[in-house]
């Protein structure tokens, strides 16, 4: 019975050692790849290149959009500044019109007073 147990343990340890060795062994890199593996490699390489190109195109498009966004923001900033300046000009024009109206009103009152004075003097 001991021999059977020792035999089974030996067989098990030998199997484990061989399985471990098989997992760590690397294939010979100089051996030519079978046609199936070459086709798979070519296909995967082509897919990777297409994915890389897609990433490059997406980055280029994103940079272009960011540039357009910066340009639009700059334009909007300038337009807001122009609108503020126009608003200030409008306020000044309104104030000037108000002053001119008051001056006209005063001149009219002065004219009226002069006419009254002329009539009173006659």
Describe it for me?
The protein has 122 residues and is mostly helical. Helices cover 90% and strands 0% of the residues. It is built from two helices and no strands. It starts with a helix and ends with a helix.
Set out the fold topology:
Blueprint (H helix, E strand, L loop, with lengths): L1 H23 L10 H87 L1
Q: What does the radius of gyration come to?
A: 48 Å
Order of helices and strands: HH
Counting DSSP E segments of at least 2 residues, the number of strands comes to 0
Low-confidence stretches: none
Instruction: Give the strand content.
Output: under 5%
Helix content: over 70%
Largest sheet: none
Count of helix runs: 2
Distance between the termini: 158 Å
Give a nutshell description of this structure.
With 122 residues, this protein is mostly helical.
Features:
122 residues, mainly alpha, 2 helices, 90% helix
